[in-house]
Specification:
about 10% strand; alpha/beta; six-stranded mixed β-sheet; 12 helices; 8 strands; single chain; about 70% helix
Length: about 350
């Protein structure tokens, strides 16, 4: 049984009642029986034994995810090699959906709160103006009463009482103005923080490109609101042999290569197009109003710049190249159709020898 499963089950069994321990023992036995099926299968297919792969084929053998099982069957029938890229794509597509859905819900809530805060701030601003105007009237009233000379004793008592009440009201209004101003400052600060959090939720921390979830949101918007004849291109990039870079030089160097490629992609995308870290070593550029010829030229520009950028690691020059799949939106495409076609084009670029651009 894989060590990571043994450690997890052992940790769960500590300090448990006897009945729960018995259930855990049954779980260990069932997991062990499943491991005896999965491990030889992975070995025969030369599929690396990673937590992600074990999870995929555990669910596959138990038919826990019909869509996943169908996809794995298709890959097996096609004699597809389960490379790290294939395994990562499977894990990303079938296990990140809940996380992304939750993140989307949080973002929607954040946007509603920010909108409500801005509305409240505007209402407080109006209240503040009205209160300030009333305070000015009270102040003028106090001055007028102070200047009024009253000889009649009874009337003077009324005027003095009125003056006292007016001064009290003025003091109360002054405190209210101060409270409203402090509340506005607090709300403005919270609104700015919410906007910052929204921006961070849409951006990949390492590369500072937009993340995959935000890409999906924007693409959905384009598909739903764009005209039937809209021109929309997508470029899907994948760094060639990135795993070799990580395994040879370490993940810190791998991260620097990712940042380098992201910077080149972002510079080429400019302000008109959307540069995205799609996952792992995959990047995208979403290009509204960019036709086929210009999309291919943009992809080739990125590919060429990355190939010609000298990367020196500890005195050794390391070649870094990138492959790209390009496609255009066809009316009626779903997101899966559109991105899937780009992914297929990228797969062909890899199969043809890497470091090239393929269009479908």
């Amino acid at each position: 049984m894989p060590q990571f499963l043994i450690e997890e089950i052992t940790e769960k069994s500590r300090d448990k009642p006897l009945e729960e321990k018995a259930n855990l023992e049954e779980l260990v036995e069932a997991t062990y029986e499943m491991a005896k099926k999965i491990l030889p299968f992975l070995a025969s297919r030369k599929i690396p034994l990673t937590p992600e792969n074990y999870r995929i084929f555990y669910d596959y053998f138990l038919s826990l995810k019909p869509d996943l099982s169908k996809r794995v069957d298709e890959l097996l029938e096609a004699n597809c090699r389960f490379s790290p890229e294939v395994s990562e794509a499977l894990f990303r597509d079938y296990y990140f959906q809940i996380e992304e859905s939750a993140a989307l819900t949080v973002e929607q809530a954040r946007e509603r709160i920010a909108s409500a805060s801005e509305s409240l701030n505007a209402n407080l601003g109006a209240t503040l103006n009205n209160t300030s105007h009333f305070r000015q009237i009270l102040a003028e009233t106090v001055n007028q009463i102070n200047l009024t000379q009253v000889e009649d004793t009874g009337l003077k008592t009324v005027v003095d009482n009125l003056l006292e009440e007016t001064v009290t009201a003025l003091s109360s209004q002054t405190n209210l103005v101060s409270s409203i101003e402090k509340a506005r400052q607090l709300i403005a600060s919270l609104t700015d923080e919410l906007k910052d959090q929204t921006r961070l939720a849409n951006v990949d921390e390492l590369t500072q490109l937009y993340n995959r979830r935000y890409f999906g949101k924007r693409l959905s918007h384009f598909i739903k609101t764009g005209p039937e004849d809209q021109i929309l291109s997508v470029l899907l990039f994948d760094i060639d042999r990135f795993k070799v870079i990580n395994d040879t030089w370490g993940h810190n160097i791998g991260d620097k290569v990712l940042i380098l490629c992201a910077r080149i992609i972002k510079n080429n995308a400019g302000d008109n197009f959307m540069a995205v870290r799609f996952g792992g070593e995959e990047f995208m550029i979403l290009c509204p109003a960019l036709d086929r010829k210009k999309a291919l030229a943009l992809a080739e520009s990125v590919r060429s710049q990355i190939e010609n950028t000298q990367v020196t690691i500890r005195g050794t020059t390391v070649p870094v190249t990138i492959s790209c799949g390009v496609t255009q939106y066809i009316h009626g495409d779903t997101q899966e159709d559109f991105v899937g076609r780009a992914d297929e084009a990228l797969y062909q670029a890899k199969s043809n020898g890497r470091n090239q651009v393929v269009e479908l």
